[in-house]
Structures are given as C-alpha cells and as structure tokens.
Task: structure prediction
Amino acid sequence: MKPAPSIIFFTVASGAGYGLLFWLGVLKPLGLLPASSLFGATAAIIALALIAAGLCSSLLHLGRPERAWRALSQWRTSWLSREGVAAVLTFPPAVVFLISLAHGETSLMLPAGLLSAVGAAVTVYCTGMIYASLKPVKEWYHPMVAPGYLLFASFSGASLLAMLAIFWGGGFFPALVAAALGLAALMFKRAYWASVDATPAGSTRESATGLGFIGKVRPLESPHTESNYLLREMAFRVGRVHAAKLRSIALLLGFALPALLFCLAIIIGGGAAMALGLLAAASAVAGLLVERWLIFAEATHTVALYYPGQG
Result:
C-alpha cells in the first residue's frame, strides 16, 4: 500500500494525543503527577492540540472532506464511523477536564479525567479496528493490529507526559511507565513482524480463480496498459533490504532508545534529566513515524494478484 503522509501523521499525532490524554486522565486525579495547575493545563492543551491536528490531517485524505460528517451516521457497521463518533464524544469531557485542571477544580477532575481516558482508549481502538477489519490486507487483518495501536498510543502519550513531568520536577513515575511501555512495545512489534512474516498470504491467484488444481496460474497480460490508481495505491512495494533496515530503525529509535533515555533520566535527575526526557520523547515520535510508514509500505493488497510481477 502507498504510505499517505496525511494518514501517517494522523495516526501518530492523534495516537500520541489520545495516549497523553489517557494517562493524564488516569494519573492526575490519583495524585501521581505534579500538582501544578499549569502542568495539568499544559499537558491537556498539548493532548487536545495533537488530537485536533491529527483529525484535521485525516480529512486531507478524503476525496470530499466536506462530506466527512456523513460518516458519523454509519456507526452500526463502520469502524471509521465509530472512530468519528468516539472522537466527538471524547471532546466534551476532555474540555471539562482541561478547565478543571487549569482551575484546580478537584470535584470535576476525577469524573472528567476518567471519561476522557475511556473515550481516548475507545477512539484509538476504533482506529486500529479500521485496519484490522480489512480482510484483503494480510498485514492488517491480524489479531495484534488493534492491540498494537492501543499500546503504541499509550507509549507515545506516556513519553510526552514523562517529558513534561520531568520539567515540573515530578517525572519519576511517568518516566518509569514510559520506559516500561517502550520495552513492551519493542517486544510486541518484534512478535508482530515475526507472526506476519510467517503467515502465508490469505489469497493467491490459484485460490482466487479456483484453477489451482491445474497448476500455477499466471495472467497472460496486465489488466491495464499503463499506470493507474490501483497500481499507485494498492501495489506499492518496498524492497526487503530497505524494509529490514527501517524495521531496525523503528525498533531502536522508537522504543529501545526512549526506554534507555527515560531510565537514565530517572537515575541522573536534575537538568540533564530534562534534556534526556526531551530527547526520549522526540526519539519515540520519530521512531513511530517510521513504524507507521512501514505499516502501509509493507501491506500487500490482494488486488495486486491481478498484475504480473505483483502477486
């Protein structure tokens, strides 16, 4: 599949935003984050800004963005519609949560924070299920895809929260959470790639045509004489050597290095911890951009079977 920059930015930015909102909604009412009202308001504003930026970016991927609101009506059958509904329903409690954080209103902080956290988790799960429900793409129609979206959003959000908490002098617990999630994400992604690489394609030319009993099936000629939308969007290929290098970069930059830097920040403390926290969060986001690019670049759509040299 051709990696679309708007979708890559959307999934990474909104995932980090919802992850940040989730951890803020859970940990702040429990008193596990800096007590400063400025800290809470800053973290909530960054979370909502990332969510809004990601959702706006996703609209750029639509052929008719002005009709995006119509997708909300198909929530009974469409995960895309459910994602939109969940995103809309998450904003009101998130705004109330932001106001309560800014004014130190403890009576609203707990219910608004928990509702925001639940809404964030549901929205990210719906995003993951958009891809996990697509049978024509082997790499997406996999039981680890939706949990992966939740884990990576949780990790990137925790990384941003830890970075901010370190600047306010209370980053020990958030940094510990971020480091643990980074290691969990590293092992999860390795397991996912191992599973996908070992899983045969769901469809072949032989199974699609029902002529496999004769022997190997190959098309006599291409369905089209020149490049077309399907070839540009559905039959994108990334070389195995490049994919292997990018996988290593995603694992190192996205998960291993941030986990190490957050551990060092916990041990060293002081001004150095601020620099390490900032570097760790930046590394996590950069690595996730690479990881998300690979999700699309390595995806193989069954429509490619109809084109010589693509199946």
Summary: The longest helix spans residues 240-268.
